[in-house]
Amino acid sequence: MNKLGKNLADIGYMDTLAAGDSPLHRLDPRAKLLTTFLFIVSVVSFNKYEVSALVPFCLYPVFLVAAGKLPAGYLVKKILLVSPFAVLVGVFNPALDRQILFQLGPLGISGGWVSFLSILARFALTVSAALALLSITGINSVCEALLRCGVPKPFVVQLLFLNRYIFALTGEAERMSRARSLRTFRPAAVSFRVFIQLIGNLLLRTMDRAERVYRAMLCRGFDGHIRVVRFSKIGRREIAFTLGWSVFFSVFRFVNIPLMLGQAVTGLLK
Known about the structure:
Strand content: under 5%
Number of strands: 2
Order of helices and strands: HHHHHEEHHHHHH
Structural class: mainly alpha
């Protein structure tokens, strides 16, 4: 299996994790989706200079990973894989915002560095929560939950197809890469002209395969409705899960617990 094949198997690993049988897996997807949405809204609502207030929010993704028995190393690798986008967003902040906010001994910390750290923290929290949600729920159940929460059906179906056709694109790319490696003695040497031809051929082959997949789905009775294996309903556990975490998010959002603890410890040491 080449590198593309390994990446394809790595993408599908989330569906394997979603087939688990922990109490968190058995919760109604709507409860997990709504709770994660509230978590993301709470995290991104902080101003650009907040860092310490974000620390308590780590409890939610850690809880999802622990209760769902998810491999933490796998999720960390996924977060690091997309982290350059967050770094690119805030990397220029230290140069643009040079106002000193506080002193760390003889070192002055500017607002640009604080906002950069805040961007990275919010990115890590939101992406880890989203990945954990997909790993304990599955894309099909998430789309079903979106549909039952009132999200327009065309949007949900497009989201589902986008996820499925990633596998078609990656699968065709893997076959093309394997075919080329078997027909050349210099697999690393790819000219720009050949690269453009490969990309165009990949697009055409992927569209053709996606069309065949769609026709096969129609022949098997696909009508745009998302069918999931695990059926569930809103019960006491779902209500307790959503309300309990909502209370925690509200407290964490309006009360800077790390700052209060730091001030308390400082007062005791004086």
